[in-house]
Amino acid sequence: MSKAGTTADSKESDKFKDLIGPMDPKLDREVREILTTARVGLLLKASFFGNLATRLTLTNADEWCPTAATDGRKFYYNSRFIKMLRPKEVEFLFGHEVLHCVYDHFGRRGDRDPQLWNIADDYCVNGDLKKHNVGEFITSVPCLYDKKYEGLSAEEVYDILYENAEKIDINQLIDQMIDQHLDGDGDGDGEGGGDGEGDDKTKGRPRLSAEERQQIKDEIKEAMLSAAAADTDGIGNLPLGVRRIIQELTEPKMNWRELLRMQLESTIKSDYTWMRASRKGWDMDAIMPGMKRDPMIDIALMIDASGSMRDTMLKDILSETASIMESFPAYKIHVATFDTEVYNPKQYDSENLEDIREYEIKGGGGTDFTCVFDYLKQEEIEPKRLIVFTDGYPYGSWGDENYADTVWILHGTTTIVPPWGQHAYYEEETT
Questions:
Q1: Residue 109's domain spans which residues?
Q2: Which of 61, 268, 300, 326 is the residue whose CA sits 20 to 30 A from 214?
Q3: pLDDT for res 280
C-alpha cells in the first residue's frame, strides 16, 4: 500500500452487507425498544452522552445502512445489526455516534485519505469511550481499539497510520468499523455511497447542503453546552478532548490581532530605575528615580508549514506583526517555518523590517512542536514572546511550556485548546 493513495480504491466493509434489506416491522419495534432503553441507560450512567444521544431521532435504515450512522440529527440504524449487540454495547454505540458529532470528525477530514481518516476516527472515539467506561466496549462484533491510541486526536492517529500505511491490512481494519461515516452530502466519497439517487443502497441516505451541515454543527455546540450543564458529575470525568471543546465554547474568544498586539506591547517594560539626573537646571550631581524603557523587544515567530497554510494567511500574520513592531524603537524578530524540523530562519529589525512581508514559507510535512524549542535552545534564542502560528495538530507534545511566554494563534479550527500559553483563533478580516 502506497502512502500516496492508501485506500483510494477501497470500499466500506462487506462484512455486514447481508444485513441490508427491507425493514421487518416486528423486528423494528423490538429494536426501537432496545435503543430507547439504551439511551435511558446512558442518561443514568453517563448523562452527557445520554443527553446528546436523546436528541438524535431514531431512524430505521435497513435498506441502505448495514450497521449504524448519524448526520448529527438522526441516529440511523440497521435493526438486524442492533440485535447482534448486547444492551450495554448499544449504549457504547450511541456514545460512538455522539463523539463523532462532538469532535466534528465529518468536517475535519480535509484532503486526508477518506478510509484511513475514518479508521483513525474510530480508534480515537473507541479509545475515549473505553477509557471512560461509556457503555460496554463492543465484542459481539469486531471493533477497532488499540490502547496506544487512547487520548490521541484523530489527526494524531491518522499521522501514525499514514506513516505505517504500507504495513497496514486496510481491509482488516475496515472490517472492524461498527458504523458508516457520512460526509453529510451523501456523495459516497469513498465511504460506501451508491452510484445515484436510484441506487437501492443509497435510498434514504442523508444528503445535506453546506448550509445544513453548518446549522447542524451549531446545534451540536448548543446541545453540548446544555448536556455539560446538566451533567451532575461535572465535565471532569469526560474525555480530555471533550473538556477542551466545552471550555473553549464557554470562554470568551479574543481577537487574534488584539491578543498579538497586547502580548507584544507588554514586552516593553516601564520600570523605575535609578538614573543620574540631567545637570541642566540643577546645582548638584543628583541621582533620582526615573523611568527607563526596556531597550529591546526580542520575539520569535514560528510558522507551522504542515497545515493548510495559504499565502493570504502568511501575509496577514507577517504584516500584522510588522505593523505592531514599527511603533517600537528597537526590536528583533526571529522568523522560521517548521513541520518536523525548522526551515528558512530569518532575523528582522528596524533596518530590514519591510523585507518580512516577502518571507517565503518552506516545509510541509507533519507537525512537531518539539523541534521549535530544540531549535531555539540550540541557537540560544530566548525570546520575550514566542508566537506560534499553527493548525494545532501536533504529533505529540506541545513543547516546553517553561522555555518562553508563548502565544498560539490557531487557524482552521475553533475547537482545539492548547494545554498552556495564551491562544486565539485566526480569522481573516472581511470587507
A1: 3-247
A2: 61
A3: 43
